[in-house]
Design brief:
The chain is an alpha+beta fold. 49% of the residues lie in helices and 10% in strands. It contains 23 helices and 12 strands. The strands form 3 sheets. Strands 1-10-9-2-3-6-5-4 form an 8-stranded mixed sheet. A hairpin with a 2-residue loop joins strand 5 and strand 6. Helix 9 packs parallel to helix 12 and helix 9 packs across helix 13. Bound molecules: adenosine-5'-triphosphate and magnesium ion.
């Protein structure tokens, strides 16, 4: 109490609560060993048989406890990476900041991590001037491992052999209350790794959980720390957010928390403009729907959609200044991508697809002669067409055009010939839409 007061006066945050183990029995948690993948079960059994501790941990336990199917399975153990590799036949050590082992069974990969060591006041971690952890290499106990995790609901350990869940930070209670609580001092944890702010947004949107008040409070003030995160990591996290199946909710929350400014700086502008807002909303909802239906989603397509309205505005402006349509479009594309690159760097590997989708858009107004036939043969026609449908849905281009292309793909040769529009006298097409 007094030491906390002294710390407060000195501006040092009070100590975070220590881990306190609650053992959750099967009757309460309701999980069964069959709920986890055969591969993960085999890895846990192998490690436990050899005398090590081994648990399913993280997102898989969280998702199973709320009745969702896990994306993948992670295992935490007190065996070192080298020991894991020796025990599990098809496995390899992946060297990153912290070594992990990939255990491979057919299509599935289970990530096996050795318990991580001390979360605070240790000299093994290196931090930068903002408090961000730049190196840590220390193995630890399960309690320390739990303390190092981000949210209480992500620090649950399921033992499929004894069939109990180990809960060190009251994560099960938070799960039931649909609450996302950061373990430890939220501000310190965000300083250590600012990406946790984006994870807070992603999990709260995806799980439809409330951010616990103290977890939410420092985010707005610390948002700028995201600028210190390596670009590739930031990009990976944004991609996870966009491909979470809840991208629309995620972006709304990013905005609500004041986190979007330096990620997709143009987003602010776009979301304030009614047509741009509608287009983005439809693109995101469309992406979410595809993910929920298990259909593939192309990140390039999605980024093309997010940046379309800035391209469009730039393109229009250039044309009013007398530039020819196609050169103006290419210049607008390059300028928009350069502006974006200064913020969230969208890797250049997506440039080609984005540019292709954008530069094919003017071809949808050409509906005479041989051009529509040639366009149908274009390898990117389908992506460009899907993109054009979104433009029509948001009211940016006439529905007629979208209907015409929908019909044109579906009818036979003779009907196609009859559909061609002579450039002098455009015909109205039937109002029929199919996808
Ligand atoms: P999902 O895979 O469904 O997105 P997840 O919770 O499994 O969710 P991962 O990124 O796979 O998320 O990470 C696995 C676990 O590792 C998390 O549940 C969490 O316990 C821990 N973790 C991941 N990233 C961090 C981080 N930045 N800080 C602290 N702990 C983390
Ligand atoms: Mg995971």
């Amino acid at each position: 109490m007094i030491s906390n007061l002294i710390k407060k006066v000195l501006g040092i945050a009070p100590r975070a609560p220590s881990p306190k183990l609650r053992r959750v029995p099967a009757e309460t948690h309701g999980l069964r060993p069959e709920s986890i993948s055969g591969c993960a079960l085999r890895v846990v059994k192998t490690l436990q048989t050899a005398g090590f501790k081994a648990y399913i941990v993280g997102g898989a336990v969280r998702d199973l406890l709320i009745g969702n199917s896990p994306k993948d399975f992670d295992v935490a153990t007190d065996a070192t990476p080298e020991q894991v590799r020796q025990l599990i036949r098809r496995s390899r050590i992946i060297g990153r900041r912290f070594q992990i082992v990939h255990a491979i069974c057919h299509e599935e990969v289970v990530e096996v991590t050795t318990f991580r060591g001390a979360g605070r006041e240790d000299d093994h971690q290196q931090t930068d001037e903002h408090g961000r952890i730049t190196r840590d290499n220390v193995f630890g106990t399960i309690e320390e491992d739990a303390e190092r995790r981000d949210f209480t609901v992500n620090a649950l350990y399921y033992d499929p052999i004894s069939n109990e869940v180990l809960d060190y930070f009251n994560g099960v209670a938070d799960l039931h209350a649909k609450r996302l609580t950061m373990i430890g001092q939220p501000a310190t944890r965000y300083r250590e790794d600012p990406v946790r702010m984006l994870r807070a947004v992603r999990f709260s949107a995806k799980l439809e959980f409330q951010l616990e008040a103290a977890t939410q409070a420092p985010i707005r003030e610390l948002a700028d720390l995201l600028l210190n995160v390596p670009e590739s990591r930031l990009f990976d996290e944004i991609l996870k957010l966009l491909l979470s199946g809840h991208s629309h909710a995620c972006l709304s929350r990013l905005r609500a928390e004041g986190l979007h400014h330096d990620l997709l700086p143009l987003l602010d502008l776009i979301l304030d403009e009614p047509q741009g807002e509608k287009f983005i909303r439809q693109s995101l909802q469309n992406t979410d729907q595809r993910i929920l239906e298990g259909k593939p989603v192309s990140p390039g397509f999605l980024f093309a959609a997010l940046l379309w309205h800035p391209v469009l505005d730039n393109w229009k402006q250039r044309q009013t200044q007398g530039e020819k349509p196609m050169p103006a479009l290419f210049a607008a594309m390059t300028e928009t991508l350069e502006a974006q690159r200064k913020k969230l760097a969208i890797p250049r590997r997506y440039d080609a697809i984005m540019k292709e989708i954008w530069s094919l858009q003017p071809r949808f107004v050409q509906r005479s002669g041989l051009r529509p036939f040639r366009f149908l043969e274009h390898p990117r026609f389908r992506a460009a067409y899907d993109f054009m449908l979104l433009r029509a849905d948001s009211g940016e281009i006439a529905e007629d055009i979208a209907d015409w292309w929908t019909d044109f793909q579906q009818v036979g040769q003779e009907e196609r010939d009859a559909m061609l529009i002579s450039e002098e006298a455009p015909k109205r097409s039937r109002r029929r839409r199919r996808r």
